[in-house]
Amino acid sequence: AEETQFADLIVKHTAPRSRFITAPTYNSSVYLSGRRVLAGYYGHLWSHGLNSMPRETDMKAIYSGAPNADELIRKWNADYLVVGPHEQEDPAIKLNEAYLSKFPVIAQTSRHRLFKLH
């Protein structure tokens, strides 16, 4: 139910062609909203012959607040970033809360936050 609630907030607060940074999972709330993601589920991308490694590497760098994170956000024209259970539980994603705190939270549920990147 909370995933659906968060998807409804995404629809309410974002434009249809917005691009999201989210964990590379097959069941993100962002998919329920019909919005675009930087990198989807890697197994699905791989099965279509797509090399997701550059996007995966950049997504991890953004979440970790790497020195070039702002540049990567611009490179991928990302509008929003999601932090929820998938991002918090993915051992490959190292959340840098200090870096993320510079972005406003425009929607949230008890377990999800939606950051506006620009």
Topology:
Blueprint: H1 2-13, E1 19-21, H2 29-33, E2 36-37, H3 42-47, H4 53-63, H5 69-75, E3 80-83, H6 85-89, H7 97-100, E4 105-108, E5 113-116
Parallel strand pairs: 1-2, 1-3
Antiparallel strand pairs: 3-5, 4-5
Helix pairs in contact: 4-5
What does this structure look like?
- The chain has 118 residues and is an alpha/beta fold.
- It has helices spanning 2-13, 29-33, 42-47, 53-63, 69-75, 85-89, 97-100, and strands at residues 19-21, 36-37, 80-83, 105-108, 113-116.
- Strands 2-1-3-5-4 form a five-stranded mixed β-sheet.
- β1, α2 (29-33) and β2 (36-37) form a beta-alpha-beta unit.
- α4 (53-63) crosses α5.
- The longest helix has 12 residues, at 2-13.
What descriptive keywords fit this protein?
118 residues; alpha/beta; five-stranded mixed sheet; 7 helices; 5 strands; 42% helix; globular
Mean pLDDT: 91
Main sheet makeup? 5 strands, mixed
**What's the helical proportion of residues?**
40-55%
User: In one word, what is the shape?
Assistant: globular
Q: Structural class given helices, strands, pairing? A: alpha/beta
Instruction: Find the count of extended strands (DSSP E, 2+ residues).
Output: 5
Radius of gyration, in angstroms, nearest whole number: 13 Å
The fraction of residues assigned to DSSP E strands is: 5-15%
Uncertain runs are none
Helix tally equals: 7
* Secondary-structure element pattern, one letter each: HEHEHHHEHHEE
**Distance between the first and last residues' Cα:** 29 Å
> Strand sequence of the main sheet, in spatial order?
2-1-3-5-4
